Amino acid sequence: MRKRIIAGNWKMYKKAEEARSFMKELVDTVPASENVETVICPPSLYLYELAEMTKSSTVGIGAQTMHEAKEGAFTGEISPKMLTDIGVGYVILGHSERRQYFNETDEAVNRKVHAAFEYGLTPIVCVGETLEEREAGKTVDIVATQVKKAFEGIADSLAPTAVIAYEPIWAIGTGKTATAENANEVCGAIRNTISELYGKDVADALRIQYGGSVKPANIDELLSMEHIDGALVGGASLEAASFLKLIEAGSHA
Ligand SMILES: O=C[C@H](O)COP(=O)(O)O
């Protein structure tokens, strides 16, 4: 049985005090459950403080992106070594906003997946199609190619510990959600791709999240699907009350 993983991606939102009080509430009230792993990915500015606040709790902290090098003259960047050093455990890689606005290519995502593993971080690898690609019937091809490229050269022993987030780009922040059946179908295709690459045991172990306008009203149906093991949540992770409802949903057997 795969443990669910619900991750909040705050993107470029929240002032320091808001981040602090959210995390205090989350740490104090997050249900202790063996069924769900909880992760918050704040802006990098808050990583250190929030990692300190969550040290003795079950809440994990993730970065929203990182550079692939351990250190160097890369103004403005943060490295996997720095993330591990301050107690960050996860990193989102290849989010569609990084691909779209910051020219993050499949090749760069692959290098970052390698770097994440090298420094003991769990990569949350994002894949997803545009509306145009979906309407042209290319969804499965697109996500399968993104997965294959992201995992190029990744050892069999590491692959099952990665997380893949399927985020149809047209569903991000738009209020439009893929139907649970649709999302499940694509997550199933992702699992098949992993099975082709690594075999069934790895495919059965690797967790796949759905992301794109996930909220308390649709989480139960999404999580009831065979191939959906959690959610990568933007908007609904910004308020502790709604995020806690998602964790609560994930904690049910
Ligand atoms: O990383 C999170 C996704 O981009 C989903 O964002 P959203 O829940 O606001 O649609």
TrEMBL record:
Substrate binds at residues 9-11, 173, 213, 234-235. The gene is tpiA. It is found in: Cytoplasm. CDD domains: TIM. It catalyses: D-glyceraldehyde 3-phosphate = dihydroxyacetone phosphate. One of its GO terms (molecular function) is triose-phosphate isomerase activity. Homodimer. GO terms for biological process: gluconeogenesis; glyceraldehyde-3-phosphate biosynthetic process; glycerol catabolic process; glycolytic process. PROSITE patterns: TIM_1 (PS00171), TIM_2 (PS51440). GO terms for cellular component: cytosol. This is Triosephosphate isomerase. The active site is at 95 (electrophile), 167 (proton acceptor). It comes from Filibacter tadaridae. It is an enzyme of class 5 (isomerase).
